[in-house]
Amino acid sequence: MAGIGNAIIIGGGIGGPAAAMALQRAGIEATVYEAYDGPATGVGGALSIAPNGRQALAAIGADAAVAAVGRPMRAMVMQSWTGKRLAEFAAPERLPEQLLVWRYELYRALHAEAVRRGIRIEHGKRLVAVEHAPHGARATFADGSTAAGDVLIGADGIRSTVRSAIDPGAPSPRYTGLLGFGARCTGDGLAPTGPKMHMVFGRRAFFGYQIEPDEAGWFANLPHPTPMRAAEAQRVPAEEWLRRIAELFRDDRTPAVEMVRRTRPEDLVVTGGLEDIPRVPVWHKASVVLLGDAAHATSPSSGQGASLAIESAVQLARCLRDLPVAEAFAEYERLRRARVERIIAMAARTNADKAAGPIARVLRDALMPIAMKAFGDPKKFAWQFDHPIDFAAPVVPGARATPAGRG
Ligand SMILES: Cc1cc2nc3c(=O)[nH]c(=O)nc-3n(C[C@H](O)[C@H](O)[C@H](O)COP(=O)(O)OP(=O)(O)OC[C@H]3O[C@@H](n4cnc5c(N)ncnc54)[C@H](O)[C@@H]3O)c2cc1C
Predict the structure, then answer these.
(1) Which residues form the FAD-binding domain (predicted)?
(2) Is the CB of 53 under 6 A from ligand 1?
(3) What is the mean pLDDT of residues 182-211?
(4) Which residue minimizes the CA distance to atom 2 of ligand 1?
């Protein structure tokens, strides 16, 4: 039985609506406050929902809603720029298939599902201040309005205001040395990949692509020495970016140049500098707690940002259902911290390979086939993908996050 009656959630991205649905299942009423005025139509590129993310969605009955907007990504094929296939890895077959979704479609699906369940999502509410109250917390928004709850959950992304409110010394996002781009284009006449994402450590930049009869999509990570925020990168005309991207892939034996050539400038998604935060020291204070990128921002190289946010939403709701607030937050952090930081660190190593300079690149290309041989072993990454959460099981402080032997 939940010890609290209501929660206010700051941020209506991916983790916010997932947390509201999980809390509702735990008997806790939650309202979501989102800074933007309306739905994020057309914003963001493609991201993956890993098998563990789907397990977490299933725990709150939201997997079908997300599966309806995703397309299967059954394996990842690693290639060198010479066209050589280095490795193929897939999650164990007993797990749900990995999905490729466009962020705005994921966002729309989660919102629609939350609203269908009677959850209130208020737009145009940009949090500017957090106050601790004797029995809960109060949020103040830029429009002067306020909201109070027994707990306040900061699901407000990598530049979280809630994070700074509970720890003014909290770290800022770290630039990975890479700029992100992506787009859909037509695949006619290109060699189909089927439901497999091909990833290429190119001579000068990193390229990912999937080509199916009805749709093709690609993403690129370009080494860039200085950070560039999304708004700044978006000021460069898309035509200019497409030209620069095609130029960087000119020597690689991949469909990169052709796919970039087929991309309409208006379809190019310019993400800007890719970022992460290796460790957020303070996850909670009094009645305030962080979730998703606010607590554990991993770069897109992990393919896990959305999945980890959803996992955290589910675990936080279980903890608040079964334990008093202070213990719930401590147990939630214990269940989550080691796992998310391990995944953030793994992605950071991948980023270093992607951003390698000319000399490091030679070494990387020489060692890659050996590394891939080891990495291609599904047992090595099953811990990441196999993370079932039994929502109904009572939270026992100190117990494992998942059944013995699994992630
Ligand atoms: C616009 C956008 C585009 C993205 N595109 C990609 C992508 O292409 N590929 C990829 O892998 N990942 C992308 N991400 C990141 C990915 O969505 C997250 O890593 C992941 O889903 C974790 O979700 P989250 O809910 O913790 O954070 P987010 O999905 O970042 O959601 C945070 C939400 O909080 C809101 N917010 C922020 N500050 C305040 C405030 N002060 N008051 C109220 N609300 C606030 C934001 O508007 C946002 O809706 C994108 C994120 C955003 C916001």
Answers:
(1) 7-167, 283-344
(2) no
(3) 94
(4) 44
Alpha-helical segments (H) within 143-193: 161-166
- Residue to probe by mutation, ligand 1, list 10, 14, 176, 315, most atoms within 8 Å of CB: 14
**With contact defined as beta carbons under 8 Å apart, do 278 and 341 qualify?**
yes
402, amino acid identity: T
Residue 316 shares a structural domain with residue 190? no
Q: Is the CB of 202 under 6 A from ligand 1?
A: no
For 222-265, the pLDDT digits (tens) are 999 999 999 999 999 999 999 999 999 999 999 999 999 999 99
Q: Whose CA is nearest to atom 13 of ligand 1?
A: 44
**DSSP H or E stretch at residue 184:** strand 174-185
Is 265:238 a contact under the CB 8 Å cutoff?
A: yes
Q: 88 C-alpha to center of ligand 1: Å?
A: 30
Per residue in 274-284, pLDDT tens? 999 999 999 99
Are both 325 and 237 inside the same structural domain? no
* 204 burial type by CB count under 10 A (0-12 exposed, 13-18 middle, 19+ buried): middle
Centre of ligand 1 from the C-alpha of residue 156, in Å: 7
**Structural domain for 163, as ranges:** 6-73+96-173+278-352+380-385
